[in-house]
Each structure stands twice: as C-alpha cells, then as structure tokens.
Amino acid sequence: MDNLRPELKLLYELQNYDIRISDIRRKISKAPSLVEEKKKSLEYKKTATETKKKNFVKLNSLRKEKEVSLDSKEKAISAHSAGLNSAKSNDVYKAVLLKIEKAGSDKSVIENEILELMDKIEKESVIVKSAEDELKEFEKIIKNEIKEFENFIKKLEKEVTAVEKEREEYKLKISKPILMQYERLRDGRDGRGICLINNESCGGCGMMLRPQLINQAYKCHELVFCDNCSRILLQK
Ligand SMILES: [Zn+2]
Fold it and tell me: How far is the CA of 18 from the centre of ligand 1 (A)?
C-alpha cells in the first residue's frame, strides 16, 4: 500500500498557506470599520469646534444688541436734556430730570454689561482660536493615518493575491480526494483540517489518541482522523 506521509506533509504545508491567507483576509476585513472610526473621531472634533464658534458668534450678536440699546438710551438722554429748557413748569422740569436720571442709570447698567461681554468675547476668541488650531492639527494627523492605513491595506491585498496564487500552484501537488477532504474539514474547524500528533495527543484539539490511531497514523496507509475533532492526523 502507498504511504501517504509525503502527500500529507504537502497538505500540512498547504494549510500554512491557508492560515496565512485567512490571517491577511481578517486584517483586510477590519479595515473599513477602523477607517470609519477615525473619520468619526474627526467629525466629533469638528462638531465640538463648531459649538465653540457658535457661542462666540452668539456673544458678539448680544454685544451688538446691547450697543443698539445703549445708543437709544443716549439719544433719549439728549432728547430729554433738550426738553429741560422748554419745561413750562417746575413739575414738568422735575419729571424730565427724573427721566434723564433713569435713562442715565439704565445706560450705566448696559455699559457694564457690554464690558462684561467684551471680557467674555475676548476669552472666547482665545478658546475658539486654540480649538481651530487643534482641529487643523488633528485633521492632518487623522488624514495621514487613514492614508497610511489605506496603503497598508493595499499592500496586504497584494500580498494575499500573491499567497493565493502560490497556494493554487502548490495544491496541484496533492490528490483531489485528499484535498477535498481537507478543505471540507478545514472550513468547519478554525481553518485547520490537518494537525500533527504531539505526545500522543491530537495537535488540533488536544485529545489523547488511541494507540491504534497513532499506529495507523504512523503507518500512513490511509487517512486517519481524530476521534474527537475529526481532523486528519499526521505523524511526522
Ligand atoms: Zn482532535
């Protein structure tokens, strides 16, 4: 009877190609979600910067509103002051004077508010500027990382194509029935359809093997399978 060992050794080598291929394919399949994650972190930072800018714009428009009302108070004061001279009676005079005082105190409240706003605006402009600088830097880093990552994936794709081509050539050395048996086993078993016998145990699942199986594997006249995981056993 033929000894299958040389062919099983070839099959074991073929499995190394398969392991490499599936490792590379796994890395490639993770790429889209990793790129997406990086893009999301950039979007998040952009939104945070936009929020800071909106706050800055809001404070500025509030300041403009205050300046408009300050202007109207000033106009009211000068209108009332002009009215003082034409006051016909003492009571009218006093009433106009009160109006001037009221407008004056309103005016100083608004002036204080404007000063406070200017202070806030100044602080906010520093915050916005540094957030924008940070965003620019972050965007540069993320875009660079994505580009490098995409190049890496391209390299992996080239590599996997090359390994697959080698595998296609290599598999011609193995008879079809054995190859089919192996591929069927491999697909349901973590990418490994053949394993070595290590210290009387199956190298795939770790189960102790019956002496008869070890003996059969040693003779190698036929395919021998692990009782537990059904992988092809190879005694080197
Ligand atoms: Zn096993």
Answer: 19
Domain span holding position 86: 29-158
The enclosing domain of 33 has a CATH number of: 1.10.287.620
> Tens digits of per-residue pLDDT, 96-138?
999 999 999 999 999 999 999 999 999 999 999 999 999 999 9
Kindly provide the b/e burial profile for residues 181-216, where b requires at least 16 CB atoms within 10 angstroms of the residue's own CB: bbeebbeebeebbbbebeeebbbbbeeebeeebbeb
193 and 232 in contact (C-beta within 8 Å)? yes
Residue 77 Cα to ligand 1 midpoint, Å, equals 98
Q: Is residue 126 part of a domain?
A: yes
Q: What are phi and psi of 202, to 5 degrees?
A: -75, 125
CA of 203 to the centre of ligand 1 (A): 7
Taking Cα atoms as reference points, which of 39, 162, 65, 79 lies closest to residue 117? 65
**Count of domains for the chain:** 1
Residue 216 lies inside a defined structural domain of this protein: no
Closest CA to 162 of 150, 170, 152, 174: 170
Q: Report how far ligand 1's centroid is from the alpha carbon of 167 (Å).
A: 25
For residue 21, being part of any structural domain is answered with no
Is 77 within the bounds of a domain? yes
The CA distance from 133 to 127, in Å, is 10
pLDDT tens string 29-69: 999 999 999 999 999 999 999 999 999 999 999 999 999 99
